[in-house]
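Record type: ASSEMBLY
Status: queued
Input:
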Amino acid sequence: MKNQDLVEFLRTSGVCEVCQLRYLKARGTEYRDVKETLQKLDVKLNGNVENKEGNEDQPAKKARLGVCTTCLGLFSRDFQMELLEGILASDFAKYDCQKIVLAICLPMSLQLRQLAMWFALQRKFGASVDSSNPPDVPIKEAVKLILHPIICEKLAKEYDANGLMINIDLTHKLEDEEVEKLVKLNKEAFPAKAAYQKRIEISRGLLEKQYQPSKVRAETFEKYFQIPGSTVEEPLKLTSIDLQGPLVCVAGKYRKLSRELSHTPWILNGQRLMEDSIEEIIIRHVGPHFTEKLDKITFMSSGREDVDVRCLGKGRPFVLEIPNAIRSCLSKDQAFKMEQDVNESGKVSILHLQVVARDELTHIKTGEEQKKKFYRALCALKEPVSVEILEKLQISVGFDIQQKTPIRVLHRRPLHTRPRTIYSVKAKVQRGNPKALVIDIVTQAGTYIKELVHGEFGRTAPSLSSIIGKPIDIQALDVVGIDLNWPPEVDNAIHTE
Amino acid sequence: MSILSEDPLEPFYFEHEEQEICGKLVTPITDGFQEDYPTVVDRFFTRYYYFKGEVPYQVLYHSNRICLICLAPDHPALNQGISSVNFDIGNVDRSQNVVKGKGKKGGMILQAESTLALLTTESGETYKVPSCIRGKLVEVNTSLVEEPKLLEQLPEGAGYFAILLPKIENCDAIKASLLTQEQYEERLKIKKEVLPETETSDDPQIVKMELAT
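Status: finished
Output:
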């Protein structure tokens, strides 16, 4: 099968030049200049070959203007213009994104037409056309090779799977009619399946998998559809364009000053117990830059502290997951302003605010048990501390404890005994108040510190209480460090002014 | 200076490191210290009491409805000297209790009068420790079996026999069926005054009625 013969056959079957290239299995950039590529492939251009319809240019041009029988105009200039106009007429301008992705839903008619041409080529060129590998570059792939670069160029955007998603729905006038025929064809072509399936689900996936010459006979197909595909007058129709902004992840570290602020909204029996929460304060100031729908934002952090625990030091890593964002960029100035606004709350402070790639969320989501947490606890003895007790509470060699689920959460969590590693303990005493100890504790993430101190009736063992052999209680707790060096430190203040 | 250097605690004094967050200096953790800070039991639990006959037991009722079943401080066994604790009460071994998941599936369902454990004293008495409330058995304190003597000296709560989880809808009725701290103290007072009369009574219901009259 010579390229020239193939192209001439396609041409007479009403196939456009772009689709001709598809059947020549053109790749990537070869679609940019159709004529040049055709020439490179040793195919004479339409004007130069012997024209059966006469030597004048007029009729040849007309033939080209007709709707392609294989792509139904999908790759025509007119359609590109229509698509561009459609996108620009949508909320496209509302989105401040450099990256886009196209998701085009094609009518099933297109798949049927590829199959019709496949049969036609087999008839014309015989065994040189395979029965299970399509003779063309499939439409779906061709859309990526042809339409995507053009649309991106015209919109001056970059193509990126994580960009603004433009969902495009296409139909064709003949689609309903052809699907009806397809249902009948399907019963005949696959009677065994039809027998036990009450309702046959006709889908694009089914067409892709089952409908090829190795599985469906041309004669059966021809009872319902023309080979090659019939000529049509109307091109594909654009029915809708929907925009779906990207999922933007904004990371940073937070510190918490208040001992009366919950991590997330604290609601018991439909009643709010605390006015505000870390989650809400951060979302309130960071969210509006990216979306109007603040309630769709997900707040995540590397662990969490109790309501009455402060989080100091370098802070706790957190991420906001913002779906359908209208913006995916955050300048240092904007980030700095948000940091300042959050600080104004006087309860929470955020730092190192930045947009991060989605796959970086693994830092927060995985390996939680391997992380070390640093705490400072204010503890009380019933009697003044002795040097002996203080020395027992200087532990630099790690040890393991067994910790039962604390009673305070036992009503809503399963009962387990968890092994946890305590890496170090270092106790100090308050000057002038020998009952008050300040104990720095480094533990494996997931250790309940309050219970580690007093032992919770022996349910955490060993505990600081069992180690010194005396009752010891905890009055206040601060998180002073989390050994996760993520997100990277950025000083958003630097670029201001 | 010489006095300070002789202070054996000198190497252990806490020094607060300054840090600024939200434009404010972080206060030292020691600022919040309270001399009269309530105990764990006082902070999160309410004390209730249950009488099996004349023998008092304590229920520590957590604000999340988890209950710890303990001996009341006036339980006679504490004076008699405890020699053993056994969760194998004959027909069933409570220490074999297993719970799964958030819903504590598989936990034994106990009634207030169900025996939780057997307690023997050095004076040869045996007490059937009752469950005190209706609920699901979540956990049994098996360390008491190994070291029963500890019961005599453990701080409040640490000598719990078991952890029970009552149903939410039963909580009000359960609390009403138990004695509050005040009622308990009142009853002990009356008991001491009218010791000869009530000593023979073995039914807590009757005692309560006597109280009411």
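Annotation: Chain B has one domain: 41-212.
Annotation: Confidence is low (pLDDT under 50) at residues 198-213 of chain B.
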